[in-house]
Amino acid sequence: MPSSRRTFLKTSLTAAAASQLPAKILAEPSGGAPVSPATDATPYTRGVGVYPGAPDEAFVPTFRIDATTYRNLALNRPATHSSAYDYNLTAQLVTDGIIHTAPPTWVSTWTSSDGYLPKPNREFLVGHFQPNAVSVLGSSGSVRVELGGGTGAPEVDHIAVFLAIPHSIDPTKVTLTFSTSEDGNTWTPVGSISGITPNTEAERWPPELTRFATILYPTIALAKPTRSRMYQLEFVDAGGDPGDTLTAWKFGQIEFYKGTKRVEVGGPYAFTSAWRSAGLDEEWVAVDLGAVCTIDKVALHWIARAAEGAIQISNDGEHWRAVKPLSATADEYKMAPMRARHVRVLMTRPTSPDGYMLSELEVFGRGRPCFEGSASGEA
Fold first, then answer.
1. In 3D, which of 284, 360, 365, 292 has the Cα closest to residue 322?
2. 37: Cβ contacts below 8 Å, ≥ 6 apart
3. Residue 325, preceding bond cis, omega within 30 degrees?
4. What are phi and psi of 191, to 5 degrees?
5. Tens-of-pLDDT digits for all 379 residues of the chain?
6. CA-wise closest residue to 281 among 178, 355, 203
7. E strand or H helix at 12, and its extent?
């Protein structure tokens, strides 16, 4: 057993044993000299809340600065952003070493009650979890699912709809109509269902979803297989009050299918290593290199580039200095060697109506912190 481990066990056992003795015995030993629970001068702690304890029992890795190897200093380093469209297209993906050129996929959802849903609720309708239901008010209304990015729209031949309606609605008087659109203004019906039979498996769903509600889970066959980026589901209660604005229809899921296979839509189901901004104005992504390094080149792998902006550097992550303006055509930016810990890409005008999309941010130079004794030198 290593000596440090023996020291650790010895001091731990001694301290544990001493903790069982009365305080009077510890304070007033028979020999007259105070007795410490430890039998030697080994320190037990580096300070309150500081781990590990005794320095000779520290087995954590230590770091060194590699000032000789020229490399991509940003690889696998922490990255941050001003905003992200969803939780799948974040800044951490711009330093993972994976470069993609095709646009990522994303989804937008809209309801007649609330318009476009915010980021936390955006994928509720396609997220495989019916209790995350989207409420729409009235005796009639609609929900929409819009698909963005990717290389094309998937083919769909039928859908399934999970819906909880109040007991006051007669399901035999409910009609659901499914439509597609090319522009979001003109809608073409491609399938419908009415006189829906309630689902009899209410015990499968949480009580808060089924209490005072009837579960509908119909399948709607489309007139023919379709590929569209915009889908709308309209609902009408033929027995309802046209002026009703309080009745809540809870849509838990819209499932797309081709044959027996579910067609997945949205970000989590088709991985693309890229960050996408939430806005079209000033945005940024930044990387923390872990130490002040010497850098001389930045490479940007765009999917939807910025027309204007700047490459900035900082030593504290708060005060920034521009070192290169962004070009609408350049992907590599060489510069005289300079010292910085943080590198930021500031974007002020996009070239795409979908905002900015960056697959990888590379920062080349020397001075990356590495694990001591690591064969790869990566930290």
1. 284
2. 14, 15, 17, 18, 19, 26
3. no
4. 180, 150
5. 555 555 544 554 444 444 444 444 334 444 444 444 444 555 566 667 666 566 666 677 788 899 999 999 999 999 999 999 999 999 999 999 999 999 999 999 999 999 999 999 999 999 999 999 999 999 999 999 999 999 889 999 999 999 999 999 999 999 999 999 999 999 999 999 999 999 988 788 888 888 889 999 999 999 999 999 999 999 999 999 988 989 999 999 999 999 999 999 877 788 999 999 999 999 999 999 999 999 999 999 999 999 999 999 999 999 999 999 999 899 999 999 999 999 999 999 999 999 999 999 999 999 999 887 654 556 6
6. 355
7. helix 3-19
Its sign, for the CA torsion 277, 278, 282, 287, is negative
pTM beyond 0.85: the answer is: no
Residue 249 tokens, joined: 């229809």
DSSP string of 83-118?
Answer: --SSTTS-GGGGGSS----SPPEEEEEEETTTEEPP
End-to-end C-alpha distance for the chain, whole angstroms: 29
Q: Output the six-digit token pair for 252.
A: 């838990």
Position 143, amino acid: V
The Cα 56–Cα 39 span in angstroms is: 16
